[in-house]
UniProtKB/TrEMBL annotation, chains A, B, C, D:
GO terms for molecular function: hydrolase activity. Residues 45-121 form the Thioesterase domain. It comes from Pelomonas dachongensis. The keyword Membrane applies. InterPro entries: HotDog_dom_sf, PAAI_dom, Thioestr_dom. This is PaaI family thioesterase. The chain crosses the membrane at residues 59-82. Its EC number is 3.1.2.-. It comes from the Bacteria. Keywords: Hydrolase, Membrane, Transmembrane, Transmembrane helix. It is an enzyme of class 3 (hydrolase).
Length: 136, 136, 136, 136
């Protein structure tokens, strides 16, 4: 299975615009992905923009799947559902912890908790489904 | 109620990083928002990245609400659910048509259809809920 | 492809507890399914219970798929997302109109609008995904 | 705050058709709700019907909210999203564990894990939002 380094290399190649980085690859299969928060992620008033958190959720799910099945660039999101819970902090990275609930032959389903780094209460929660190509 | 020009001005002020533009403001309350597709929106293989479509869906919902209630910068997304249906074209803008299903006192719910410009089959479909501040 | 009568027969065999009936099978592939509303569907205060509308959405999606691919009892729901929009009437049936957004080889995605019969404003809106068995 | 007994009494009064029972009320605010599985819950082939699990998810969310805010019959579901993960067993009850992710002034958001009783792998996962009346 791929290492943290290999997954980060893949992330930079496959999502060249993404500023996400894989931070942890845990034994239980969960992954931790972070996104910086700066001018480009903030809206007036100091809110982290919703699309930044959706991007983070999508990338975290993708990485959690690749960590389990190996690097399969063709897996595609079929569904993502996100609940925004609290206002994230403007001065911290947003960090996502993702764990798969199911890894079937053709579908993987996972959940993602998003936090402002170092805080206890989640700022968002997402669930998503990826279709996995049959012939890999 | 705000004009197309006023909403576009607001969009640039409130989401300075966004490349979305409001294209149409229809009499039935639906809005059409577009996002360019270029290097920054593509992943290797020529796929428009999922987060671009999520951003477009989120902005389209927001604009559809503001078009009805006036410019209220504090409305916040509480939930967004998106289904990815088909691969978008790499050589066309993505265009979202959004219509509200409900506009209540405290919640607005809308649906968004996303197309590659000029194509008939949708590439994604989203539904979302925004919380509207009480004291506006 | 199956007729309305065949689909209703299947519905009674496959979902023996369901009180849903298929009412229309339209040329564009959309289907109309109805559920009676009586004592068993109401909560105190005269609200149609949420689960009745979720059942109706699920059955309508299933029937819309079967109407297109033939009667395949093994198709299973993988995801259902529903927004409740307005209070349904206590004295009318609830009626769902469902149309598929995508019918792929392994996944079908559809949307469902639910109304109190004869009313114009929808009471709920759902989207759902079904997995279709490969070897059928 | 209400006791387990009071919540079960309320459940029987408010959802007279429901066969759900509240089994646990934990110190961290999570609740455990069960639904029997028998002829009325099974589809041919021995699958627990999807609507049974949606009902269970909806009731578990409702009870988790009431356990925190007191018995407020007017709280209404605004959104429910469910992923079906595995086939439940035909010979066991289905059991839902629900925990709130957010309890705001006007919205509560929770997640629900559903299991066949005694099994380790979840059969479904749901998230839902309830609107809480302002003047309670």
């Amino acid at each position: 299975m791929p290492t943290l380094q290999e997954l980060n290399d893949f992330l930079r190649a496959e999502f060249p615009q993404s500023r996400c980085t894989l931070e942890e690859l845990d034994d239980d299969g969960s992954v931790v992905v972070a996104h910086p928060v700066g001018e480009a992620e903030l809206r007036p008033g100091g809110t982290v923009s919703g699309p930044v958190m959706m991007t983070l959720a999508d990338v975290a799910l993708y990485i959690a799947i690749l960590a389990k099945i190996g690097i399969v660039p063709l897996a595609v999101t079929t569904n993502l559902s996100i609940n925004f819970l609290r206002k994230p902090r403007a001065d911290r990275r947003v960090v996502a912890r993702c764990r798969l609930m199911k890894l079937g032959k053709s579908l993987a389903v996972g959940e993602v908790w998003i936090f402002s780094e170092g805080e206890e209460e989640p700022v968002a929660h997402a669930t998503g489904t990826y279709a996995i190509p049959r012939d890999r």
